[in-house]
Amino acid sequence: METQAELENNDNNNNNSSSSLIGGGVRQQWPTIDGPLGLSENDSLWYARYFFIFGFLMLPLLWAVNCYLFWPVLIHSRSFPNLRPYVVRSAIAFAVFSAILGSWAVTFVVGGERLFGHTWDELVMYNVADKYGLTGWI
């Protein structure tokens, strides 16, 4: 049977196995925002990698989820060096995606019919029911 001191020493060793040093010698314990309820470092690496990769498969919201879930890794520059590249790349990719989507939306809304000319009627969706005669039955 183990003594209380040995149990505490084992608990400290288990906690330190999932921690990482950040600047000044302070230990960052958990890579996710959930703290001790979150993922281990190995599981976090798997999720961060696949969220980053699947973000390129027309699921850019996964990049935002990756940044949110691994926020402690994103804000502490020296924590979890294996995990950090995937989270930083997800943040950059989501920022680029947001800029492209935002510029498209502003162009579409501000330019409107003046910018697109006669093709504007083909681009907008609010006149689909009138175009196909679907409003007469109401």
TrEMBL record:
Residues 10-20 have a biased composition (Low complexity). GO terms for biological process: Notch signaling pathway. InterPro entries: Gamma_Secretase_Asp_P_PEN2. The keyword Transmembrane applies. The chain crosses the membrane at residues 50-74, 86-110. Keywords: Membrane, Notch signaling pathway, Transmembrane, Transmembrane helix. It is found in: Membrane. It is a multi-pass membrane protein. It comes from the Eukaryota. Belongs to the PEN-2 family. This is Gamma-secretase subunit PEN-2. It comes from Heracleum sosnowskyi. The lineage of its organism: Eukaryota, Viridiplantae, Streptophyta, Embryophyta, Tracheophyta.
